[in-house]
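Sequence in, structure out.
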Amino acid sequence: MKIAPTNLAGAMLVSVSPHTDNRGLFARTFDTEDFAKAGLPTVWPQCNVSWNAKRGTLRGMHFQATPSEEPKLVRCTSGRIFDVVIDLRPQSATFRRWTGAELSQANRDALYIPIGCAHGFITLEDNCEVYYMMGTVFDAPAASGVRWNDPAFGIAWPLMPTIISDRDASYPDFTA
């Protein structure tokens, strides 16, 4: 397993190192010691999955507000997505910047989203499944977000969404 920093402070790309033979492959996707050495959480009290039927489905940009901030580790287990993280930490050197990575069933990469960042993705093909490891248990009153196309962030999405929830489409402009 390789844990590499992205251009966003604290966000990491976690890549597997598969061992292959005539049966297929085996790869470690999480290791407490490796995560601790990289300064990442080693306890994940909740895991979630989302399945997305159609290409162009956008979910995000979500985060949990104080006092229920959460880190996430996100992996695409079926299909391909463009995964995005926005730094919403005013004290961060990368405040209001974003980073993105293609996560797919083929590359098996995961993206670590630190506390204080918003997260979302768009599906690049039909039938995508996304697996989330959550650093805290979901707290509905703390659920919040920023708009996927807010000019404050200027995210370069690879395609326009065709499916998006009313909530995700209607977050107000970001002010900070």
